[in-house]
Design brief:
This protein has 378 residues and is α+β, with helices and mostly antiparallel strands. The chain contains nine helices and 13 strands. The strands form three sheets. It has a six-stranded mixed sheet, with helices on both faces. Strands 2-1-5-4-3 form a five-stranded mixed sheet, with helices on one face. Helix 1 packs antiparallel against helix 2. The longest helix has 54 residues.
Length: 378
């Protein structure tokens, strides 16, 4: 082989080596990218598994919703999350209010009476929908959000062929959710959250049933006594006054004798409704038995409590009660009232609660003896 030929072959070998080195560099870079992607995927899976454990382990409605709005947004790197619950009769909202669960804590949680429609055909959403956000089509799903997303995933929450709500995810990135993307993972997420929602709502319903008077649908004695202990302790920490009313329907036995037990039940239910209408969400109303009710007013001194008590008394006396069988009847209510402030809220909370109930009951006794249909305080 001539020197020229040797030189040419050497140059070819050098080119081959350079090409191989370049290919190796490309492969190494590709492998590094794959390795980094694998680590990212592993981290993502670990975050999602952690999120799944959090929501599955949630024991209350509040705990679950907090995790949905905070943990899910972080786990899935979302800019917007909203939750809509289907509450056809409004009983779910009422139950949560009675259990002192303030839905105003969750600005992106809303309730609707009828299913929402997202398609231009006005069809009810049956499966997850990924799309670019359009206000006319998707606006109802993000009505609680001041900042609107660019791309969205709408996830209907179904349990045993029953729609219970919608989980709505949004991103400011336009191509985060696209119609041609697979929805397997999102469907799985929807299924898990639907099961968890049904579970905590059922748990809250069991709690509600156990702490609710079945006739009037206000709290029972057990719940009021429990709330009194909590509110007395909170009033002590935050240094405000708390008031207690003991209420008794006047001449209730005559109502039962004249209109029967059904008439008496009608009056009890309407009395509870009228009392409740004069209270705040933070106050507690309970039936203590028979025709007696107790109200706990938080952050309320004697002067303000007297105003509330007078409103209640007037609401009972001013309008006849419609009876389900036939006709109407009139009745009045007597109210005993007591209050404690930061100076008198001392000692064991149970003793303070018992003292408050006893004093309110004594004031009620005075109201009864002095002619009924009046408020007395001690």
């Amino acid at each position: 082989m001539t020197p020229t030929e040797n030189q040419g072959e050497s140059q070819i070998n050098q080119i081959d080596v350079l090409q191989l080195q370049h290919e190796n560099q490309v492969l190494r870079a590709r492998l590094q990218d794959l390795l980094e992607q694998a680590h990212r995927n592993q981290n993502i899976m670990a975050r999602h598994q952690s999120f799944d454990l959090k929501i599955i382990g949630a024991n209350s409605f509040r705990e679950l919703v907090v995790n949905i709005f905070s943990s899910l947004a972080i786990t899935s790197e979302l800019d917007v999350v909203s939750l809509i619950l289907l509450d056809r009769l409004g009983d779910l909202q009422q139950m949560l209010a009675d259990l002192k669960i303030d839905i105003n804590e969750f600005p992106h949680l809303t309730f609707v009476r009828t299913p929402l429609k997202s398609h231009k055909t006005d069809a009810v959403l049956n499966k997850p929908l990924l799309a670019h956000y359009q206000s006319k089509v998707h606006g109802a799903f993000f009505s609680s959000c001041s900042k609107k997303p660019s791309s969205i995933a709408l996830i209907p929450l179904w349990r045993q062929d029953r729609l219970i709500g919608y989980l709505n995810l949004g991103s400011f990135v336009a191509d985060r959710f696209l119609p041609n993307m697979a929805t397997d993972f999102i469907e799985r997420l929807g299924s898990i959250i639907a099961v968890c929602l049904e579970n905590v709502i059922n748990n809250e319903r069991l709690t509600y049933i156990g702490l609710t008077d079945p006739l009037t649908n206000v709290s029972n004695r057990r719940y009021v006594e429990q709330r009194m202990l909590e509110e007395i302790a909170r009033a002590r920490r935050q240094k405000y006054s708390i008031s207690c009313m003991y209420l008794d329907i006047d001449f209730f036995k005559k109502i039962n004798d004249q209109y029967g037990h059904q008439g008496g039940d009608d009056v009890l239910k309407e009395v509870a409704k009228r009392i409740k209408a004069e209270l705040r969400l933070s106050d507690t109303l309970g039936r203590f038995g028979g025709e007696e009710f107790v109200v706990v007013l938080v952050n309320t001194d004697m002067q303000d409590a007297l105003l509330v008590a007078e409103r209640i008394r007037k609401s009972i006396a001013s309008q006849p009660f419609n009876l389900s069988a036939s006709g109407t009847c009139e009745t009045t209510i007597s109210i005993g009232l007591t209050s404690i402030d930061d100076n008198s809220n001392q000692g064991e909370t149970a003793n303070v609660a018992n003292e408050m109930l006893w004093r309110a009951d004594q004031a009620l006794y005075v109201a009864k003896n002095e002619g009924r249909n009046q408020v007395r305080c001690t």
